[in-house]
Amino acid sequence: MQVTQLGRFLKRYKDFQNNWMRPRNEKTKTAKSSRTKVAILDTGINKDLFSGSGHRVVGRSFAYRGTGSDQRECPWWLATDSHGSAVANIISHLDPCCDLYIAQVSEDKQSISREAVCRVSSNRHLEIMTVQS
Predict the structure, then answer these.
(1) What is the side-by-side order of every strand in the sheet holding 99-104?
(2) N or C end of the chain: which has fewer CB within 10 A?
(3) Pairwise CA distance, residues 9 & 109, whole Å
(4) How many Cβ atoms sit within 10 Å of the Cβ of residue 126?
(5) How wide is the angle at C-alpha 55 spanned by C-alphas 133 and 86, nearest 5°?
(6) Burial of 37 (0-12, 13-18, 19+ CB in 10 A)
């Protein structure tokens, strides 16, 4: 039994986004994008589990390894935990035309950086944020 017609809606939505919402002038890209901007604040993503094909994917890491002079930023695209990739896959299936902003706010599920969440949430261009807990 099919409760919704989500597949039919998504097909028409994707067609609308791809054919009607493109910038009028591809060289200057002056038209405003109608893509939904979604931030995923999590442990990052693993490119083997989420390819991001068909989406604009940008990322940044706010998680660090080491201490003192040995401290270095964790790569947001090489997450050791699969949770962020799973969330990205779910969102990309629900909105096949959204822009994704991946913010790695921790290396594991136990230690979310409050500072990182505040820094990402101050971005006024984001429309939806999902934060792992």
Answers:
(1) 56-61, 99-104, 37-42, 128-131
(2) N
(3) 34
(4) 16
(5) 30
(6) middle
E strand or H helix at 129: strand 128-131
Burial letters for 83-98: b for 16+ Cβ neighbours within 10 Å, e otherwise? bbbebbbebbeebebb
For the chain, the residue count is: 133
Beta bridge partners of 11: none
Integer Cα distance of 76 and 46 in angstroms: 8
* pTM of the model as a whole: 0.72
Distance between CA atoms of residues 97 and 26, nearest Å:
18
- What residue spans define the domains of the chain? 1-32, 35-131
Percent of the chain exceeding pLDDT 70 equals: 81
C-alpha of 7 from chain center: 22
Give the pLDDT confidence of 13-36 residue by residue, as tens digits: 777 777 766 555 555 554 556 778
* Spatial contact of 39 and 120, defined as CB atoms under 8 Å apart: yes
Count other C-beta atoms under 10 Å from residue 78's C-beta: 13
